[in-house]
Amino acid sequence: MFSSPRARWLLVPLAAACLVAAPGAAIADDGEDDSPRITTRITAKGEVIAEMKVAAKPAAVREQLAGAEKAHGLAPTTVSSRATADGKCEKVDLQTRGLLSPFVLKTRRCPTATGWKETLVASDNFVEYWNEWSVKPLPEGGSLVVFKTRTLPNVAVPESLILSQTRRVLNKLMKNLLGALGET
Asked: CB of 170 within 8 A of CB of 90?
């Protein structure tokens, strides 16, 4: 339906208007009840980082994030995810909420010393996509959980708007993790 370049460019003003008019529409959270436990920031490189301290030990947090499907299930923008083993890593077929239809991407999620890193393998919908979970023990007990991402969809929308929306999504993602840990 919108496969021709001309048809896609006709949709650009509509997509931009929708994002500007309702930047919170992609998630049900309006951001007004931000948890003081969660901090988010945008770096000069366009990375969005969310951090929080939790009472749970690192093993309990890692259990909630251990599989790609389970971890993606915490994100308010995930439509579907299917993971298959790929050695120590997982291949992930992922669909996330898009402007008019779901964005489709293939990623690879691998363990790191402190968590997992997921990188883009293929997608017509993303120019860049990666994320990284890090879970570290705190000296006073509990864990420091950090989620870092760079997500750049292939849409004609200002990057500042994409970064702002990503920041809101990460806030909700961390709230969902708090809920999964029973720490709401």
From this structure: no
Give residue limits of the domains in the chain. 5-180
Question: Helix, strand or coil for residue 18?
Answer: helix
Q: What does the angle CA 131 – CA 136 – CA 139 come to, to the nearest 5 degrees?
A: 155
Q: How far is CA 107 from CA 23, 32, 94, 159, in A?
A: 26, 32, 8, 22
Could you give the CA distance from residue 2 to residue 9 in angstroms, rounded to a whole number?
Answer: 9
CB of 177 closer than 8 Å to CB of 134: no
Domain 5-180 is found in CATH 3.30.530.20 = yes
**Any idea what DSSP says for residue 161?**
H
State how far the Cα of 58 lies from the Cα of 68, in Å rounded to an integer: 17
Task: State the DSSP string of 124-161.
Answer: SSEEEEEEEEEEEE-TTSSEEEEEEEEEEESSSS-HHH
3-class SS at 86?
Answer: strand
Nearest-angstrom CA–CA distance, 49 and 31:
16
CA atoms within 13 A on the CB side of 43: 10
The pLDDT tens digits of the residues spanning 5-52 come to 444 444 444 344 333 333 333 333 334 446 788 999 999 999 999 999
Of residues 54, 62, 61, the one with CA closest to residue 144 = 54
pLDDT at 75 over 90: yes
Give this prediction's pTM.
0.81
